[in-house]
Amino acid sequence: MASTRASPSPITAPFSIRLTKDERTDLASRAGNRPIGAYVKSVLFPDGGPTRRSPARVAHESQKELGKILAALGASRLASNFNQLAKAANQGALPVTQELENELWAACAQIAEMRDQLLAALGIRSVNQNLVQTFNRHAKSRGVL
Question: Fewer C-beta neighbours within 10 Å, C or N terminus of the chain?
């Protein structure tokens, strides 16, 4: 009876190279958040091929600080506060002038920009680019952006 199991991955063999401290520092700098071996392999074999695992994410002190800022932004209840303003405006309890509307759109744009910059600094792709693009299109049509 034939086995239906997938064929095993090709066996890899380690390759060592001696580097000076400066050379290793330079390679680490070029590699960024990727392991040095993965970076060297990507330079030697630009066509790529299947990767064995996703790059390791090393949290540097600045990334930890950015993460704290992003968490604080998420916990700030800005979305809830904006929702309360929208509810009050819909009920007629908040007189909405063109100036107020422009200020609210500008505040939303600034918050979205902070979020995007923090995510980019952390190397995290924005979760919903369509939402961001739609928001930016509406804000631009109102002359806010």
Answer: N
How many Cα atoms within 13 Å fall on the side-chain side of residue 6? 3
Q: How many CB atoms are closer than 10 A to CB 124? A: 14
Report pLDDT digits (tens) over 17-26.
Answer: 899 999 998 8
Cα 94 to Cα 86: distance, rounded to the nearest angstrom: 9
Assign 6 to helix, strand or coil. Answer: coil
pTM for this predicted structure: 0.42
Q: Tens digit of pLDDT for each residue in 52-86?
A: 555 555 566 777 777 788 787 777 777 778 778 87
Give which of 54, 14, 62 is closest to 34, Cα–Cα: 54
Q: In angstroms, rounded to a whole number, what is the distance separating the alpha carbons of residues 27 and 37?
A: 9
For the record, the structure tokens of 130 come out as 């369509």
Residue 59 carries which DSSP code? -
Output the CA torsion 62→65→71→73 (10° steps).
Answer: -90
Between CA 68 and CA 63 the distance in angstroms is 9
CA–CA separation, 72 vs 89, rounded Å?
Answer: 27
